[in-house]
Amino acid sequence: MQLTQTKYSRILILLTALAVTMFMTLPRIMFMAYLRNNPGLRMNPITWGDLASKSLFAFLVAWLILWLNTANINMATFFRTIRTSKFSHRLVINILLFLLVRWLFIISGIPEESALRQRKGAVFLFNISLVLEVCLCILVAEIYRLFRNNQEQRLRNEMLLKANAEATFEVLKNQVNPHFLFNSLNTINAVIDKDVIAAKKFVTNMSQVYRHILNSAGRPVITLAEELEFTTAYINMLLERHSKGLLVDLNIPEACNALFLPPVSLQVLIENAVKHNVVAVSHPLKINISEQDG
């Protein structure tokens, strides 16, 4: 996932640098067309070579500015470590980079508009266009950083919520073992002297319940068919304990059996329903398990 995100960021930086270059080159193209349509101005026309060299230069500057302002880089210096994750550090880097690019322009002799005969005018226009390009790239990079940080924060929140839900559910599942075992043994003790066959059925259902708990340990989800098989055995144990005080209506279409849900989740709901309500023959508890809208 990290590799995919890095590749996506690189492609986005390249496309953005290309868009900035086109934005900066468009006025030059319009000026070149204007000079060609007005030869009476007696100004030197802008050649395609000049246009290509300045466009390439603008693209490299845009790509470098965008990359430095979107990447998280730590650079050790004699004074302190510069971190591009901090805005103040990025600001210093941008100023130094602007001066470096300006110096490279001067020593390379890349012309501005060839229509301008005076070098001072060319340098002035170059400085203006360079400042605009750098500011535009910084603005785009800051927007991208805000968007990326917001997405990362949302992802961290989702992961924390998921971890919290899994921990809470794990606690509920762990509560099944001692609590459920204690009640089951009491039921067996009460039934075994009265009805041996009922006691054997109860033990069979109990073994099926614990087998399911052991088999589903460590599995994030199971099919509804597996959960219903386990739940049916658990319901039979509850009916043995509460007799006519508990009524369970299980109405799930077969088309839903392939759906997934966390293991033991249905059992926990039924257990809480029995635990926190009155279960008596005079006041029977009715539990309805059904499917609604998928």
TrEMBL record:
Keywords from the named record: Kinase, Membrane, Transferase, Transmembrane, Transmembrane helix
Record flagged with keyword Amino-acid biosynthesis: no
Domain Signal transduction histidine kinase internal region: 168-242
Descriptive protein name: Histidine kinase
Organism this protein belongs to: Mucilaginibacter rubeus
Pfam families in the cross-refs: His_kinase (PF06580)
Positions of transmembrane segments: 12-35, 55-79, 91-110, 122-147
Entry GO terms, CC: membrane
Molecular functions (GO terms): phosphorelay sensor kinase activity
Keyword set includes Kinase: yes
